[in-house]
Design a protein that fits this description.
This protein is α+β, with helices and mostly antiparallel strands. The chain folds into three domains: 179 residues, Triger factor/SurA peptide-binding fold (Orthogonal Bundle), CATH 1.10.4030; 136 residues, no CATH class; 116 residues. The protein contains 18 helices and 14 strands. Strands 1-9-10-7-8 form a five-stranded antiparallel sheet. α3 packs across α6, α7 crosses α17 and α9 packs across α14.
Length: 482
């Protein structure tokens, strides 16, 4: 790792660790990404500014950095990020204290750092080197997490749920349900016919959806050989990196830096958000995630220093252009067809739900629909709320939120799966207080009550602090995850 080759006190190395959040016993790594000189701020909480890179680091900690997320999912993740930062401020404002002695005991009690059941300084040092984390950073974050734990215990500690609530939790999870299921897609496919004219009209009315935005950038890897003429990551190399980073903060452009350090010419790339060039070819030879980091650069701050996979790159985004896709493009037609089919399915589902809500669709109508459309009814016995052997978890969860004898329509978010379901019978269950699983469901019930308390507290502190979201920057972040 490059980090082990230089002193912890040198400036850019310290910057790599800014924004790291470490949950005790779960170590996600650093994310391998810094953007120097960036002015992108996604949210301000009581004058404290948080950058897009901090948010992306948080996404990585949550295991979402490489996921595709829609707009709502990114906003939900931002809400979690804000809640985390609010809790940090609450910890500081309330004044929870963790002494050096207590922190030392906490570290010494971690199984990761023990050898033959005793704390081993060697194991501790090995851990820090393996994860490329300075002791001060690790201990500060461990202290921060312990203080948050104290805050959460302060809010929700001491709860003891009643036997009734424990049984309620057990029954909610383990009750058996007999259902009758009719696959609506087999009904809809007879009613949905998309013509070529409809596809053309949709394209003309939604041309903006079929525009590719291409970014043209100049990119140069700052290797030791190129920067200091030797193949060694030494202090001189990192001093040069720091100098370049400072120049970028001052607003210097790429050409100025190339000339000042005699770096030659930068490579030119043009790509879209799918990381492909205009000819639809993938760009090879670049570290994973580098293009994504380039895409979030703003027009006001186009020149940046980016670190990926222990390599340093100076990049300048110099042009953005929109290119209209053609109606005859196979992918365009496929997307239009899917959208039109989804729209028709959504309309048919809405009509059916309307009849059910107005009590105009009974069990006899359920059976009649099956007979008239020649679509078989499937009888399923669900053993519990996790029984996904036949239908997936998303559909099962919807079924378990309705009462016996109800007729419901369930579907996924994209209306690709649509079912009409009759809940024929619910068999409730109880747990004996002497059961081996009783403690498990006591803990689950306590957790659910505690989570409700946390949500109430979360709402309270959100009202206590001034939160200003930069929606222009947030839209850029949404493009990053899209």
């Amino acid at each position: 790792m490059i980090g082990t080759l230089r002193k912890f006190s040198t400036s850019i190395y310290a910057k790599i660790f800014l924004g790291i959040v470490i949950i005790p016993f779960i170590f996600w790594g650093m994310g391998g990404s810094i953007v120097g000189g960036s002015k992108n701020i996604v949210v301000v909480i009581d004058k404290q500014k948080y950058s897009t890179q901090e948010f992306i680091n948080f996404a990585q900690m949550m295991g979402r950095a490489n996921d595709k997320m829609n707009s709502d999912e990114v906003e939900d993740l931002l809400s979690v990020f804000i809640s985390e930062k609010l809790i940090e401020q609450e910890v500081n404002n309330i004044g929870f204290i963790l002494s050096d002695k207590s922190l030392g005991k906490l570290i010494k009690n971690q199984d990761n750092f023990k050898r033959e059941n005793n704390f081993s300084r060697v194991e501790y040092e090995k851990f820090l080197l393996k994860n490329n984390i300075p002791a001060t950073i690790f201990e500060d974050n461990l202290s921060s997490q312990e203080k948050k734990k104290q805050l959460l215990n302060f809010i929700g500690g001491g709860l003891q749920p009643s036997e009734f609530l424990i049984n309620y939790t057990y029954n909610k999870i383990n009750q058996k349900r007999n259902i009758e299921l009719l696959n609506l897609n087999n009904v809809f496919k007879k009613k949905i016919n998309i013509s070529n004219d409809q596809i053309k009209i949709y394209f003309e009315n939604n041309k903006d959806k079929y525009i590719d935005t291409f970014n043209s950038v100049k990119l140069l890897e700052l290797s030791p050989k190129r920067l200091i003429d030797i193949d060694e990551f030494n202090n001189l190399f990192f001093e040069k990196i720091d100098e370049i980073d400072d120049l970028l903060v001052q607003g210097r452009e790429l050409d100025f830096i190339l000339k000042k350090y005699n770096l030659g010419k930068a490579d030119l790339f043009t790509f879209d958000k799918s990381e492909k060039e205009i000819n639809s070819k993938s760009i090879e030879g670049l570290p994973k995630g580098l293009i994504k980091s380039i895409l979030i650069l703003s027009a006001e701050d186009p020149t940046n220093l980016i670190e990926k996979e222990n390599k340093y790159f100076i990049v300048e985004k110099f042009k953005t252009e929109n290119i209209q896709k053609n109606f005859e493009d196979e992918n365009v037609r496929k997307d239009i067809l899917l959208n039109l089919e989804r729209t028709n399915r959504r309309k048919l589902v809405a009509e059916l739900i309307g009849k059910i809500n107005e009590n105009q669709f009974t069990k006899s109508d359920f059976d009649k629909l099956s007979k008239n459309e020649n679509v078989a009814i499937q009888k399923i016995n669900l053993q519990n709320s996790s029984d996904n052997k036949i239908i997936n978890d998303e559909i099962v969860n919807q079924i378990y939120s309705h009462p016996e004898k109800a007729i419901i329509v369930v579907n996924d978010v994209f209306f690709s799966k649509n079912f009409l379901i009759y809940i024929d019978k619910i068999q409730n269950v109880n747990i004996d207080i002497n059961s081996e699983e009783y403690q498990k469901y006591l803990n689950l019930t306590k957790l659910e009550i505690t989570n409700q308390l946390y949500k109430t507290y979360d709402k309270l502190i959100k009202e206590r602090y001034e939160i200003d979201i930069n929606y222009q920057t947030l839209n850029t972040v949404k493009d990053y995850f899209n």
